[in-house]
Automatic annotation (TrEMBL):
Protein name as annotated: Alpha/beta hydrolase
Domain of life, source organism: Bacteria
SUPFAM superfamilies membership: alpha/beta-Hydrolases (SSF53474)
Keyword Signal applies: yes
Amino acid sequence: MLRATLFLILTVLPLCNHAQTVRYSTSENLFYYDSKTSDQTSYMKEKNLLDVYYPEVDTRVPVIIWFHGGGLTSGQKEIPLALKNKGFCVVGVGYRLSPNVPAETCITDATAAIAWVFKNIERFNGDPNAIFVSGHSAGGYLALMSIMDKSRLKKHDLDSDRVAGLVPFSGHTITHFTIRKEQGIPGERPLIDNLAPLYHVRNNAPPILLITGDREKELLGRYEENAYFYRMMKVNGHPDVTLYEMDGYGHGMTEPAFPLLVDFVNRKTNLK
């Protein structure tokens, strides 16, 4: 486990040498459910959309899937500015929200979006063998659940271990508080059931970089549950899991954390 400082953040800014000279395009509002298998309600047509920001190049580039935060009750798809012009294909995903749907549906949507990326990202110069899944808060929870629970992508005939890396920002590793609320469980009472990433710890998961805010400034228990997830992954023999605690930053720690995500992707794909 490491505590990230401003000095560290300023030293992990590797960029592709050509990134600033490459032109980028964006394809917006792509429906990611299979039209043959979904009923496409009006709410699905509104929320089950994604945007793809991609470089106009002749090679395949790493892909970052980004899930927005908002407690599974609010928020909208986004392409973070800090991830643009870095030589990556970036996918911003929208998903249905509680109370319009049960909160577990958010996980189902997130998984369907990841499956869509695997099957379609080459159209946007993305490398299906270099897909990284990330997000902030509720988005971090969705990133973890959709990959750690292998049964979810298996329903799409995909192996979650094909993911190149997981980088949740301040994500729940216990069962999400909105799901607990639906079950009448107080937010102060932790729960580790099959809707908790901790329930699915295993040694063959993709490489993982956990990032949280300062333990004294974060949301209730958020650092500690990530630290427990980190420790249990190590106990299970996972060879590549790291936890960063962002000194001095609270739950809204995305901007100083983005360089760590960029560096992680660059290192795992050997980009300079």
